[in-house]
Amino acid sequence: MVIAAGCEKQPVAKSLLLSPLTNTVSRISPAEPSQAQPKLPTIKMYVGTVEMKVEQALTEIQIQKGMMFRKKIGTNEGMVFVHRNISERNYWMKNCFVPLSIAYINPIGRIVEIHDMKPHDTNTVNSVSNNIKYALETPQGWFKRNGIGPGVMVTTEKGTLSETYFPRR
Questions:
Q1: What is the pLDDT averaged over residues 123-141?
Q2: pTM of the full predicted structure?
């Protein structure tokens, strides 16, 4: 049995889920999401020099629901998925209505891969790299339209991705 996770595919054994944040198994409701989650808190993000506004999926549930059931996404908007562990990533488009592009981003904030995804496609879009900590979903073609490819750095109004999401105290 498989449950979609914010367009990230997660293996499920009965009512257990491997958490993408902690790499631990946790109990979940056997019910799959059936509606879009409310708009998540946003942050100003810079992909290279291009500014965009992104929702932040920071918890397991937010990552699991992601862009599911959303009917639209703004031209310079997106959703960043912040994972606690470094790993390969597997996203899919089950219950996602909007065509998206996804960038897989390494721990230092550099885009490693970019893939286009089709609405409702349940085939996974696997990262080639196993060194992925973040994923950024945008309207399909956004990276190409803005001249952004692998190697481009991603930062926020608060600094690097690790300064923003994992500050040293």
A1: 97
A2: 0.82
Q: What is the pLDDT of residue 168?
A: 79
Burial 137-161 (b: 16+ CB within 10 A, else e): bbbbebbeebebeeebebbbeeebb
Map tokens 């190697």 to a residue.
Answer: 151
- In this structure, the chain runs to a length of 169
DSSP type of residue 153? B
Which residue type sits at 73? I
Measured CA to CA in angstroms, residue 31 lies from 35, 48, 65, 93, 124 at distances of 12, 39, 12, 18, 21
Helices (H) and strands (E) in the chain, counts: 3, 14
Gyration radius (Cα) of the chain, Å: 15
Q: What average pLDDT does the structure give for the chain?
A: 86
Helix/strand/coil for 124? coil
DSSP string, 29-91: -SPPP-SPPPPPPEEEEEETTEEEEEEEE-SHHHHHHTTTT-----TTEEEEEEEEEEE--EE
Q: How far is CA 51 from CA 45, 107, 149, 168, in A?
A: 6, 20, 15, 25
**Residue type, position 38, single letter:** P
Task: Note whether 115 and 125 are within 8 A (CB).
Answer: yes
